[in-house]
Amino acid sequence: MSDIAGEYIDRLVTVEMRNRAMNHNVIGQIYDAARQEGGGRPITTRAAQALIENVGPGDVVFIVTGAGYAPESPNGESDGPPGAAALARTLYWGLNAVPVYLVEENHAPPVVASSHAAGLMVRDFELAQTRRMGAALLSPPVDGQGMETWIGNVFEQYNPKAVISIERLGANEDGIVHGSTGMRKPAVDLGGIFDAATARSILTIGIGDNGNEIGFGRIFEFMKEFHPYGRECQYPEGKGVISATKTDILLPASISNWGAYGLCAMLAVLLENQELVHTPDTERRILEACLKAGGWELRYCTSRFIVDGTEGESSMAVIQLLRDLVRLNIAAPDRGLSHGKIK
């Protein structure tokens, strides 16, 4: 059942809707490459099963997100924080885990607002860990100095059992972070968090929608050749936008939030609990809270009800479809009164 459900969850969250001026007609091929590299099974199934196997009650899960910077979008964008909040909610209620958001300071307001709208408060870590009062939040050094020491300290203190990236920009092979169309971004490189997790045999999952996000190092050579900005940037001698950081599992999606929602849905199937996927009304509240807190739609850098060019109602519809998919997959076999006996 898990592979059947995962097949259609994966299809739903990879339905591409993009303006032709953006990286267009790409997500299907990128997903196929990631799925083949991972052994051929549906990717949400693999990721959800890995989380269930590695994360237990009271365990910490780092959730890393953040894209968009000043001057265009100083607090980031509406893709990333909602997906992070939704996944944190599912991990909190489904696995009794302790979600810890790990974001740059400028990206914190939309993440906190999204989490609160999802019904998951952001509190001091001690309260989150010992009294189950919600999630916690950490930020790396503002200038990226001392990152190696900081990373070592947070792994020692928090002892995460999984590290998940959702729409978190990652550096290319020269250590430069880009937007999807080849523009440099003033981001702190958080790829070292995933390298440290890998060195400690901690599960890592990357969710992204273009190739410049953490995780795409998993299919780096394919992306270098396939992506419109795989080998060239919008400045001289740039080597392309593709993130060199690998994760154990890479989940490409049409919109990164949707990839996170798909993972929530697969966890809901495996744990047989539809309520682990939030409702469309909650999705509206999450998106509106994110936008109000400065996580803007990034095309025109406004607070319109848009995510990556798609209307907010489209994200609400994806949530409804995922909830129904979960409901039907976990329900007891029932073909009604007009179809005769079940074989």
Description:
The protein is of the alpha/beta class and 343 residues long. The protein has one domain: TON_0340 (inorganic pyrophosphatase (n-terminal core)), CATH 3.90.1640. Helices cover 42% and strands 10% of the residues. The chain contains twelve helices and eight strands. The protein has a six-stranded parallel β-sheet, with helices on both faces. It has a two-stranded antiparallel ribbon with strand order 7-8. α9 links the parallel β5 and β6. α5 (108-117) packs antiparallel against α11. The longest helix is centred in the last third of the chain and has 19 residues, at 312-330. It is globular. It starts with a helix and ends in a 13-residue tail after the last helix. The mean pLDDT is 95.
Q: Tell me the strand order in the biggest sheet.
A: 3-2-1-4-5-6
Q: In the CATH hierarchy, what is the superfamily?
A: TON_0340
Would you tell me the structural class of the helices and strands?
alpha/beta
Under CATH, the topology is which?
Answer: inorganic pyrophosphatase (n-terminal core)
β-sheet strand percentage:
5-15%
Helix content: 40-55%
Could you name the CATH class?
Answer: Alpha Beta
What is the level-2 CATH architecture name? Alpha-Beta Complex
Number of helices: 12
Sheet with most strands: 6 strands, parallel
Mean pLDDT: 95
Number of DSSP strand runs: 8
Poorly predicted runs = none
Distance between the termini: 17 Å
Helices and strands, in N-to-C order? HHHEHEHHEHEHEHEHHEEH
What's the gyration radius in Å?
19 Å
What is the global morphology? globular
What is the number of independent domains?
Answer: 1
